[in-house]
Amino acid sequence: MTDKTIENCRKVGGDYFKLIYSRRSNLTSDYFLKQFNFNDYHCFKSTGHQREMSYEDFLEFKYAVYIFFKKELYDKDHILKWIGWIKNIGRIQYLHKPLPPFNPEKIIIKK
Predict the structure, then answer these.
(1) What would the pLDDT profile of 54-85 be if each residue is shown by its tens digit?
(2) Closest by alpha carbon to 69, among 61, 28, 77?
């Protein structure tokens, strides 16, 4: 387990939430892991190279933010499609909340 202190953004165990490294918190991953079942969520790190994380990766808590999407509500392929699209347009650093249930390729960005 990590000794990093963590705080949450949104209710832990809800449809989606973030766990964020925070020096002002006194809570660690042990505290939050008691509030949800990791296997019920898709876990992604929210950094420049956003990707899915394993339970072991999460326990190390190497990155500043992890976002969780409830598996029964959010399709991993759809999430990955949006992450790829966001990476290609280059204006948004990473996915930080669920996006609409349509194909992002249909969005036209005019310059």
Answers:
(1) 999 998 888 888 999 999 999 898 888 888 87
(2) 77
